[in-house]
Amino acid sequence: MAVKERVGLVVSDKMQKTVVVAVENRAPHPKYGKIVVNTQRYKVHDEENQCKVGDRVRIQETRPLSKTKRWKITEILNVKPA
Fold first, then answer.
1. pTM for this one?
2. Do residues 61 and 70 make contact, with C-beta atoms less than 8 angstroms apart?
């Protein structure tokens, strides 16, 4: 089975070694055809605390690291300018 990967935006970095990443999914409504935006928030493991709010990151599914944390950061794609 393939490893799940997502690309999202860091929306919170207040925890130690954990960031919250929001992943947007845009899909047409099945009946009406309008584009609907669904946002899913994931708690993601950030070992070096290097991600900041506004960074675009790639995350990968991993084994459970805590009660709610099942993802880890694989790379930082865009760093938000300070």
1. 0.90
2. yes
Give residue-wise pLDDT tens across range 21-61.
999 999 999 999 999 999 999 999 999 999 999 999 999 99
Please state, in angstroms and rounded to a whole number, the distance separating the CA atoms of residues 23 and 56: 10
Please, is 56 exposed, middle or buried when counting C-beta atoms within 10 Å of its C-beta (0-12, 13-18, 19+)?
Answer: middle
pLDDT tens figures, 65-77:
999 999 999 999 9
Pair type for strands 35-45 and 71-78? parallel
Distance in angstroms (rounded) separating the CA atoms of residues 8 and 73: 10
The three-state DSSP-derived secondary structure of the chain is CCCCEEEEEEEEEEECCEEEEEEEEEEECCCCCCEEEEEEEEEEECCCCCCCCCCEEEEEECCCCCCCCCEEEEEEEECCCC
Measure CA 10 to chain center. Answer: 7
